Each structure stands twice: as C-alpha cells, then as structure tokens.
Amino acid sequence: MKNGKLEDFIKENRMTFDQYMPDRQIWYRIENQMDKNDLRKLIIAWSTRIAAAFLVVLFCGIILGISIGNARQSQFDYASSPELKRYQETESYYQKEIGIKLNEVTDPQIKSNVEIDL
User: Fold this and answer.
1) How far apart are alpha carbons 113 and 40 in whole angstroms?
2) Where are the domains of the chain?
3) Could you tell me if 84 and 78 are in contact, meaning their C-beta atoms sit under 8 angstroms apart?
4) Which residue, 63, 85, 89, 65, is CA-closest to 76?
5) Helices (H), the chain
6) What band does 105 get if pLDDT is binned at 50, 70 and 90?
7) Is the pLDDT of residue 1 over 50?
C-alpha cells in the first residue's frame, strides 16, 4: 500500500520534481569518483588473482617436495638391497660392541670423555 501512495504522490507532483536539474559539475565529480573506484577494484582484483596463483604454486611445491621426500625415504629399504642389509647388520654389531666396551670402563672421568666423543 505504501508503494501505491508513493507512486501516486510522484505522479501528482511530477512537474515539481522535473523543474530542478542538478549542476553538470556534480555529474562530472560523480563520474570521476566512479572511475577511481573502478580502478581500485581492478587493482584489488588483479592483486587477489596474483596472490591466489602464488598460493597455488606454493602449495604444489610443498606437495611435490613431500612426495619426493617420501620417495627418497622408501629408497633406503634395507630388505630390498643386500648391501644396505649388510650395512645395517654391521652398524648394529658395532653399536653393541661400543655399549659393551663402555660398560667395562670404570673410571668416571674417562667414561664421560668417551661418551662426549660418541
């Protein structure tokens, strides 16, 4: 109902509204402000796109780095290579020997020096 009353009021007073015209300078200022806002929006849009592209490239790099790291870790499978298995056995043997010899040392000063060297 209010819309009907408003429309009726505008129709009845149309001549009164039409006699006032805004100054041309006002329209020029409005257009200039709109142009500046459009330029700002364009700059923001491009900046956002560049940032999004950067994040996509960064994310892909991280995923690629993780997958390459996992592939390198799986290359050292001791069961698949006899040389690596022998290396693991040798390392385990010497670790045990070092532990035994370290337990045989009775002098605390010498023992602390040996532990520091290990």
Assistant:
1) 69
2) 23-75, 78-118
3) yes
4) 85
5) 2-12, 14-18, 24-75, 82-104, 108-117
6) confident
7) no
